[in-house]
Specification:
The protein is mostly helical. The protein folds into 2 domains: 3-70, Winged helix-like DNA-binding domain superfamily/Winged helix DNA-binding domain (Arc Repressor Mutant, subunit A, Orthogonal Bundle), CATH 1.10.10.10; 82-133. The protein is 69% helix and 6% strand. It has helices spanning 3-8, 12-24, 33-40, 44-56, 72-96, 100-110, 116-126, 129-133; strands at 60-63, 67-70. The chain starts with a helix and ends with a helix.
Length: 134
């Protein structure tokens, strides 16, 4: 990932945006700004601003009046973020006994603050348990 791409996703809102586009892409080829705004509970101009920023970084393909979709790199990053979230969630359930609903809320807050090293440690610790048990 280039410096531009990594700088563009340093914020929680950018990460949440990528994950939302990833989720909505299963419904349609291109996602409208209004649909994404509704999904994220933000204004359409905020969606446009973020889409332009992530388009400049090569993470989304944004075309005015035609909506947006993730680029291949954007999709890879979104999958990585989602996997990171699921690892944290699984760890909270397995190691601390959190109920899944509680783990969901906690992981949603924690996912934006953990390092690559921490995520790698979670993968080592959990092995494939997180895949089969949530």
């Amino acid at each position: 990932m280039s410096d531009d791409q990594s700088t563009s996703v340093d914020t929680q809102s950018a990460q949440d945006f990528l994950k939302a586009v990833y989720a909505l892409q299963s419904e349609t080829e291109r996602i409208s700004t209004n649909r994404l705004a509704e999904y994220l509970s933000i204004t359409p101009p905020s969606v446009t601003d973020m889409a332009q920023r992530l388009h400049s970084a090569g993470l989304v393909d944004h075309r005015r009046y035609y909506g947006l979709r993730l680029t291949e790199i954007g999709e890879q990053l979104a999958r990585k973020l989602i996997r990171q979230y699921h690892l944290i969630e699984a760890y909270l359930v397995h190691e601390f006994g959190y109920a899944l609903a509680e783990a969901h809320e906690e992981a949603d807050q924690m996912e934006h603050a953990v390092s690559e090293k921490f995520v790698e440690a979670l993968m080592q610790r959990l092995g494939d348990r997180e895949e089969r048990s949530l």
